[in-house]
């Protein structure tokens, strides 16, 4: 299921003295089964854009295509519920949405709102608990008896239980310790690869974007200023600097080495493992030459 | 150097009646001298947040004692001791009491009965120190996380304490906010020699400290300079933390057979070593 | 959601009315509500209206916001207006059509009652639009201070109010976030049978309450660590300053009261 934004603009409090434009003529596409990252500072329009992906917000001008559904500015959109099932959003600090008496009931809440039977919803919950690395006995507990990290995983399971085709992640690692961050990001990447889940990551972290994304969209003050593969984006050091963004540490380190030996590498490395292999290779070549 | 704070053989449990439950903090001792920056690191659940609460009397240990300026912390000297230390908590919103920035900074001063003229002077001075002097009448919901935390720091500084405790003060901030807060604290130390204890799982923050205390499962696993602690390498990862980028890359390079000398905590060290060991032949 | 709450919201500015001490404004509005009932004829109502519009002018508040303030009571205004139009049968006949007869007195009374609504709404709106909520709280706290002598916990009440006020925007943002998160999970507050819609309030309220309790706990801890031990021995940072313009405002109101008294029938 593709998502397309065509000339989308959005203004808060339209028609009042407090009107404020948040998005300006946004045009981009998120093809099925890809992993996209949306990067930008706080206030760049990231959160506004992600709410358009499941029609929580409707554009004040332009169109949003979500699969077959088209949401047009100004026109009333009926029955958007189906869209919400197809595009799941994991908001920042998702543990704040837990409310049920037991973890099981909370995970079942989402799918049952979309007409899934109780039996099927329960089965999904039991399966997902393992996927988010929680022990099965957690299902009978109250979500409020769990630690923050565990609560977050329950909330994520609750969104995955809806079996969306697209998943949007808004800063999924905010507030987690390093181990927690790695586990969550690896889990979503695995889901993306194993189930072909279209994944949209909204983040501050260039490092995460480099490691996981096929494509990066950079937002700045409500406009989409840069778009492309990680390699394309990180080459453009000047533009990034003007946007007060820095390429990932890996890329900056590679640039330091390239400057030191006065030779560019054959490609831009996106992970530490890749970089180490490249440096080792370049070294062997240098030594072979001398 | 006078001792500002110490924990001496402190053991604490949230459920002392349950014999089988683990102690949140087990037999922990350390001492902080004036002017030092100590980082207490550990994964969530390692006991570091409990230590923060023990340090300012929100909790009392079942065994051992906490000393502030060499006096054992107890109910009699609790309020006096608290006025010697400022604390900034994790959630920027849930410690912002005042209706505006300057009101919030004045809160601790009001509580301590500081006269009006002096309050005004101290509030302005503290906000200048954290570079929020232009935000006097701003309301909290118009501020970013980093700005709110800087206001919290100003509020803590207004009482001119000997010690500033940061309890995961950067965990909920975006990278820009985190940088703002850490820069502010560094500048403060340079200007005033403030003693800082920061509780964190962020290794960039830990690297700024003079000494690092590494907590795991309630016990003090190791104590030393950032270099010494990061030299523990894989143990850090095993206990839920992360290694600095340069260190990770260094290990990977060595695995690929690239000859390198020793440990590298910073990128500069690694770049230089690569040059001298390899490219400069 | 937050965007639509304009009624009663503070609009910063530096008009003479903005700069008045909140105490004088509170006393002014309180007294004004009482003297409104002195008016009972054309002259007195005209005086009231003129006075109110003068205050509006000096406050430099755009009429848009005041008219918005009328919206909630518009129905009531219209209702009482029509009540007088049709029920008061005195004076000359002004309009006649089939079985509808409108008398002069009915029209007069209808207009009078509408003016009364208007000036009351406008004046109280001016209070909330030109005075920040925290100033109002300060004003109320200082005015109620004498009640401490009869064991009324004035300081605690004022602190509760000021903290609540500070958190209103934060809580509204949070409500919005939780609502969106639950809508994204298929929760529907705006359509479907009533029974379902009421049930859909639970996933909104429970997280709000849980988070509010956590906030309260964190805040209490922070306050304690910052030395809060109750009102004993506390000094005040926010000071109120009563000056000539405040006295002048009340004198003006007094003069108005005299005029109304003089011209009423």
From TrEMBL, chain A:
Ranges of residues in domain ABC transporter: 3-246
Q: Where in the cell is it found?
A: Cell membrane
Enzyme Commission number:
7.-.-.-
Judged by the first EC level, this protein's enzyme class is translocase
Keywords attached to this entry: ATP-binding, Cell membrane, Membrane, Nucleotide-binding, Translocase, Transport
List, alphabetically, the SMART domains matched.
AAA
Where this protein primarily resides, as one coarse class?
membrane
A GO term, aspect molecular function: ATP binding
Annotated membrane topology: Peripheral membrane protein
Instruction: Tell me the Gene3D superfamilies matching this sequence.
Output: P-loop containing nucleotide triphosphate hydrolases (3.40.50.300)
Subunit record text: Forms a stable energy-coupling factor (ECF) transporter complex composed of 2 membrane-embedded substrate-binding proteins (S component), 2 ATP-binding proteins (A component) and 2 transmembrane proteins (T component).
Output the PANTHER family linked to this UniProt entry. ENERGY-COUPLING FACTOR TRANSPORTER ATP-BINDING PROTEIN ECFA2, HEAVY METAL TRANSPORTER
What is stated as this protein's family in its record?
Belongs to the ABC transporter superfamily. Energy-coupling factor EcfA family.
State what this protein does: ATP-binding (A) component of a common energy-coupling factor (ECF) ABC-transporter complex.
Question: What NCBIfam families does the record tag this protein with?
Answer: ECF_ATPase_2, PRK13634.1
Q: What is this protein called?
A: Energy-coupling factor transporter ATP-binding protein EcfA2
Automatic annotation (TrEMBL), chain B:
Q: Which Pfam families does UniProt cross-reference here?
A: ABC_tran
Q: Where are the transmembrane segments?
A: none
Which of UniProt's keywords are assigned here? ATP-binding, Cell membrane, Membrane, Nucleotide-binding, Translocase, Transport
PROSITE patterns named among the record's database cross-references: ABC_TRANSPORTER_1 (PS00211), ABC_TRANSPORTER_2 (PS50893)
| Keyword Cell membrane among UniProt keywords | yes
SMART domains the record matches = AAA
Q: Where in the cell is it found?
A: Cell membrane
Which GO molecular function terms does the record list?
ATP binding
> What InterPro entries does UniProt report for this protein, alphabetically?
AAA+_ATPase, ABC_transporter-like_ATP-bd, ABC_transporter-like_CS, ABC_transpr_CbiO/EcfA_su, ECF_ABC_transporter_ATP-bd, EcfA_1, P-loop_NTPase
- Please report the stretch or stretches of sequence annotated as the ABC transporter domain: 5-242
Q: To which protein family does this belong?
A: Belongs to the ABC transporter superfamily.
Q: Which protein are we looking at?
A: Energy-coupling factor ABC transporter ATP-binding protein
TrEMBL record, chain C:
Q: Where in the cell is it found?
A: Cell membrane
Membrane topology value: Multi-pass membrane protein
Q: What residues form the membrane-spanning segments?
A: 26-56, 63-87, 107-129, 244-263
Q: Which UniProt keywords apply?
A: Cell membrane, Membrane, Transmembrane, Transmembrane helix, Transport
Give the InterPro entries listed for this entry.
Answer: ABC/ECF_trnsptr_transmembrane, ECF_transporter_component, EcfT
Assembly behavior: Forms a stable energy-coupling factor (ECF) transporter complex composed of 2 membrane-embedded substrate-binding proteins (S component), 2 ATP-binding proteins (A component) and 2 transmembrane proteins (T component).
Family annotation (HAMAP family): EcfT
Q: What the protein does?
A: Transmembrane (T) component of an energy-coupling factor (ECF) ABC-transporter complex. Unlike classic ABC transporters this ECF transporter provides the energy necessary to transport a number of different substrates.
Family listed: Belongs to the energy-coupling factor EcfT family.
Name the UniProt record assigns to this protein: Energy-coupling factor transporter transmembrane protein EcfT
Q: Which organism is it from?
A: Lysinibacillus xylanilyticus
């Amino acid at each position: 299921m593709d998502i397309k934004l065509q000339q989308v603009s959005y203004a808060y409090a339209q028609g009042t003295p407090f009107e404020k434009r948040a998005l300006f003529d946004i045009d981009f596409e998120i093809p099925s089964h890809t992993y996209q990252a949306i990067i930008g500072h706080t206030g760049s329009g990231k959160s506004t854009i992600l709410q358009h992906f499941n029609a929580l917000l409707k554009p004040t001008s332009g169109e949003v295509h979500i699969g077959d559904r088209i949401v047009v500015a100004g026109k009333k959109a009926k029955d958007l519920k189906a869209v919400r099932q197809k595009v799941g959003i994991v908001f920042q600090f998702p543990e704040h949405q837990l409310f049920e008496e037991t973890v099981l009931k909370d995970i079942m809440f989402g799918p049952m709102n979309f007409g899934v039977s109780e039996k099927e919803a329960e089965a999904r919950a039991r399966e997902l608990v393992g996927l988010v690395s929680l022990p099965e006995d957690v299902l009978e507990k109250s979500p409020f008896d769990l630690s923050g990290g565990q609560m977050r995983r329950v909330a994520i399971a609750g969104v995955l239980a809806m079996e969306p085709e697209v998943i949007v992640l808004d800063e999924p690692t905010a507030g987690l310790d390093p181990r927690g961050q790695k586990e969550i990001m690896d889990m979503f990447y695995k889901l993306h690869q194993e189930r072909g889940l279209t994944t949209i990551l909204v983040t501050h972290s260039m490092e995460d974007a480099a490691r996981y994304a096929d494509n990066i969209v950079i937002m700045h003050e409500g406009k989409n200023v840069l778009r492309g593969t990680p390699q394309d984006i990180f080459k453009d050091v000047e533009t990034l600097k003007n946007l007060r963004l820095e390429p990932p540490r890996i890329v900056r380190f590679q640039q330091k080495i390239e400057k030191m030996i006065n030779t560019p590498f054959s490609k831009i490395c996106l992970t530490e493992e890749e970089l180490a292999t490249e440096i080792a290779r370049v070294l062997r070549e240098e030594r072979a030459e001398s | 150097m006078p001792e500002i704070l110490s924990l001496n053989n402190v053991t604490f449990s949230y459920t002392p009646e349950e014999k089988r439950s683990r102690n949140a903090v087990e037999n922990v001792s350390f001492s902080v001298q004036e002017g030092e920056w100590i980082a207490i690191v550990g994964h969530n659940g390692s006991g570091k947040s409990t230590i923060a609460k023990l340090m300012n009397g929100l909790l009392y240990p079942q065994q051992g004692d906490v000393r502030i300026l060499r006096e054992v912390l107890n109910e009699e000297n609790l309020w006096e001791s608290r006025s010697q230390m400022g604390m900034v908590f994790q959630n920027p919103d849930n410690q912002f009491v005042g209706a505006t920035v300057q009101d919030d900074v004045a809160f601790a001063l009001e509580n301590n009965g500081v006269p009006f003229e002096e309050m005004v002077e101290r509030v302005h001075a503290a906000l200048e120190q954290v570079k929020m002097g232009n935000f006097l009448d701003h309301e909290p919901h118009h501020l970013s996380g980093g700005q709110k935390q800087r206001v919290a720091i100003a509020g803590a500084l207004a009482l001119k304490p000997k010690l500033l405790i940061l309890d995961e003060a950067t965990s909920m901030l975006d990278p820009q906010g985190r940088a703002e807060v850490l820069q502010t604290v560094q500048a403060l130390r340079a200007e005033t020699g403030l003693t800082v204890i920061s509780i964190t799982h962020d290794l960039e923050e830990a690297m700024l400290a003079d000494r690092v205390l590494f907590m795991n499962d309630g016990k003090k696993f190791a104590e030393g300079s950032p270099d010494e602690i990061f030299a523990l390498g894989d143990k850090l990862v095993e206990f839920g933390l992360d290694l600095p980028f340069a260190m990770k890359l260094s290990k990977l390079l060595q695995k690929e057979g690239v000859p390198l000398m020793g440990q590298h905590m910073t990128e500069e060290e690694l770049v230089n070593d690569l040059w001298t060991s390899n490219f400069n032949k | 959601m937050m965007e639509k709450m304009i009624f009663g919201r503070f609009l910063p500015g530096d008009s003479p009315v903005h700069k008045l001490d909140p105490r004088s404004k509170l006393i002014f509005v309180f007294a004004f509500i009482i003297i409104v009932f002195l008016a009972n004829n054309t002259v007195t109502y005209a005086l009231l209206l003129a006075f109110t519009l003068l205050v509006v002018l000096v406050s430099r508040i755009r009429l848009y916001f005041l008219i918005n303030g009328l919206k909630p009571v518009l129905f009531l205004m219209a209702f009482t207006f029509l009540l007088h139009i049709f029920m008061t049968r005195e004076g000359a006949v002004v309009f006649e059509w089939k079985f509808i007869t409108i008398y002069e007195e009915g029209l007069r009374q209808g207009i009078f009652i509408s003016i009364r609504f208007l000036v009351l709404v406008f004046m109280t709106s001016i209070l909330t639009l030109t005075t920040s909520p925290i100033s109002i709280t300060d004003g109320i706290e200082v005015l109620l201070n004498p009640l401490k002598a009869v064991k009324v916990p004035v300081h605690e009440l004022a602190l509760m109010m000021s903290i609540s006020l500070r958190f209103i925007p934060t809580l509204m943002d949070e409500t919005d976030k939780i609502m969106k998160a639950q809508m994204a999970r298929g929760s529907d507050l705006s359509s479907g049978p009533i029974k379902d819609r009421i049930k859909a309030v639970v996933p909104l309220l429970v997280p709000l309450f849980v988070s509010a309790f956590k906030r309260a706990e964190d805040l209490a801890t922070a306050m304690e660590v910052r030395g809060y031990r109750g009102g004993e021995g506390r000094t005040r940072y926010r000071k109120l300053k009563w000056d000539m313009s405040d006295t002048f405002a009340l004198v003006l109101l007094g003069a108005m009261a005299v005029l109304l008294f003089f011209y009423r029938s």
